[in-house]
Design brief:
globular, 2 domains, single chain, Rossmann fold, alpha/beta, five-stranded parallel beta sheet
Length: 334
Amino acid sequence: MPFADILGQEKAVSYLKGLAAGGKVPGAMLFFGEEGIGKAKTALEFAKALNCLDSSARARGDSCGVCQSCRAIGQGTHPDVVFADFLYQARLEVKKDFSSKGYEEELEKELAKQQHINVDTIRDVTAKSQQKAVAGGWKVLIIDAAQTMQAAAANALLKFIEEPPYKTLWILITSKRATMLKTILSRCQPLAFAPLAGETVEKILSASQQEVPYAQLAAKYSGGSVARALKASQALELLASAEQGAAWPCAVAGALSRTLALSRTEAQSVLDVLLAALHQSWRQETDPAQAAAMRRDLKKFEDYKRAITRNVSPALVLETALMSLDGINVKIFD
């Protein structure tokens, strides 16, 4: 996938193409911005641009997307490009060959547990960073969700990103730059990624191989993030599936998954959509009494979102939130 296929990040892409074409690539970079706006895809595309076998594409700071190197990076099999995320970490945790019976089930269970990038994963990647490039090009080591690194993991990474070997690039990806260690931040060249325009989110959803219900509305509620748009789509489907009426709040809450982690995520997504719809209705409301009621509800919904992260029933919180909308003119599906 050449850089032209990265939508909505023209400024960041232009900068990276200049680095790749000029050969002046820093040893460590920090890609930061909201989740679901193309940071990981851009990091992999940058790795392709640095390792592409097509000299004319490399001269433009881009990749051909079809050579052996580009295909290998896209498939996650290039020996010199490591993409370490929670899936990568889960695979390290599962002590089985991928062809073993029950491997996929065990991997799925392990993946569900992942919340932090741990020190063993960082040690695995740093060890690979010291190995000679097999293909003779750039070694590119990408750490996704870098803000979740435990203190020991971040400290284990420090000396490696400070003075990486020749033609070695570290890319740390984060949606929460402010929470990262200052010692890590000081060693990385930052590159900001902007939220996507709603039209861009909708275009990406339309181009997706999976069907996305309420794609246009989901893009509207996305806040510029494809990841949030997908969650909004699921939330809208959940809200629409329950029959309207006095029992609607109970029906929506009852449709949540039975697993606590999933039901919490689903309830948060529904609250995000309701908050966005409520905020829009508040901005358009001309009746002072209704506007005042909506302001109170906006504050309450923020409290509901915080409550879901605590040890309470997501279904109960969501039902209470939906009941509080009674009498308020909120247009969710407009």
